[in-house]
Amino acid sequence: MTILEASTEMLARSTTTTTVGWIGYIIIGALAGWIAGKIVKGKGSGILLNIVTGVVGALLGGWLLSFAFDTASGGWWFTFFTAIFGSVILLWLLSFVTGKKG
Predict the structure, then answer these.
(1) Which pTM was predicted?
(2) First to last CA, the chain
(3) Which of 1, 7, 33, 73 has the most CB atoms around it within 10 Å of its CB?
(4) Contact between 29 and 59 (Cβ < 8 Å)
């Protein structure tokens, strides 16, 4: 596989959309960010930071899971669990980089 083919495939994976929509992403992001905060830190981080964590986590989780699953065909539940998965990884990476546990 050439570099161009690999980058095209990576771009295609990162731009696939689900059937959830933007409002759904915000709702799922808020819940996923709060749950991930409870899992990693034992508490949430406030509504705005929970939404940001959840949406960025959903993008990260969707990108990671796209190597094993067809993430674009997932609905609300798949997107929700993907967002939690990605948010936990995101918070864990941030705590690893910053050295903070909570």
Answers:
(1) 0.72
(2) 42
(3) 33
(4) no
